[in-house]
Amino acid sequence: MIDYSLEHTTSDILTSQAEKAEAADRPAPESLQALRRDGIFALRTPREHGGTWADVESMARRFTELGRACPSMAWIAGTCVTAKDMAARSFPAAAAREAIFADPDALFCGSGVPGGPGRRVSEGVRVSGRWPNVSGCEDAAWASLALTVEGTPVFAVIPVSELTVERTWRMAGMRATGSHSLIAEDVLVPTAFVTPAPAFTVADVLLYAVTALGAVVGAAKGALDATGAMFASDRKPFMTAYSRMGESSGARQWLAEATHLVNRAERTMLAVARAADTADLSPAEKPRLQMDLADAGHDCRAAVERMLDVHGASGFNMSNVLQRHWRDLSVASRHPHLNPYLAVESFGATLVERL
Predict the structure, then answer these.
(1) How many folded domains does the chain comprise?
(2) pTM greater than 0.90
(3) How far apart are CA 133 and CA 48, in angstroms?
(4) 275 burial type by CB count under 10 A (0-12 exposed, 13-18 middle, 19+ buried)
(5) What residue numbers bound the domain in which 120 lies?
(6) Using one digit for the tens of pLDDT, what is the confidence trace for 213-258?
(7) Could you say which of 144, 161, 196 is where a domain stops?
(8) Of the candidates 179, 196, 213, which is a domain's last residue?
(9) Which residue range or ranges hold the Acyl-CoA dehydrogenase/oxidase N-terminal domain (predicted)?
């Protein structure tokens, strides 16, 4: 049994808890504690409130390492960054800011899709609505939620304790994210905690996409770790005369191709992250960068398919970590931020407009 003390790395703890968290359909308490202690939940807390407000490239690297151990926990870290970024940008100088960021290491969750209407009252806005797929909602302190008030898009930050969680997340992968539904039933949100929805920049959108892609690239690297361990073992290709996997030129080629694809996806992600850190990023560059993001996700999926080919049916054994990384990656890489056909559609439209 692992002693969850400081000498164990965050990755060690996430790896040891991944199977338990998946079975529970929510993050393991030990994993959340490790992320909090490692400062992960403060990555997008404003510096004046005790956070680091890290640059996008640094966060992409952190999410990748987390995803290598447990893709679901990397996803939780990424959605916390997104929710905090939306809150910070929506309330740049509001009285609510002190309360929202009182604990710089608090876990945030949220949804940018309007989930219901609000009606104005003298004390603020009364909210009723439903927001599905809110990652980490059972363990978060605050929820950053989009809604409409009198037909106008607004943004509210609400304590999760005032909302109800309905356990609706039943997926083949990313199960440990606990991306259940949040429900508000006539919840009073004080005026200071409601604001018109801000216009998000291209850099904002890229940040939110990179938080998703970091978990995907991490999952692919974790799959590579499992594949490398298999090559280092005494495992051999079944029904062959080889004594080890590495003796097969075909297996070596599949390993090389998978590694190349994962490395290319990581380079692409980091290039997009550096672009998101650029102050003068223009809207015209968005379609090209979204294509890059979608390509990186596709590279990761293709890489893991090669790894599964090398493993054979044993790669799908529930005791094999490879199958969990495959399932997590397959679900996460299909997030709207990484949607390949919409990226192609947008990029194609941009190219035609330039003719």
Answers:
(1) 2
(2) yes
(3) 31
(4) buried
(5) 10-196
(6) 999 999 999 999 999 999 999 999 999 999 999 999 999 999 999 9
(7) 196
(8) 196
(9) 15-78
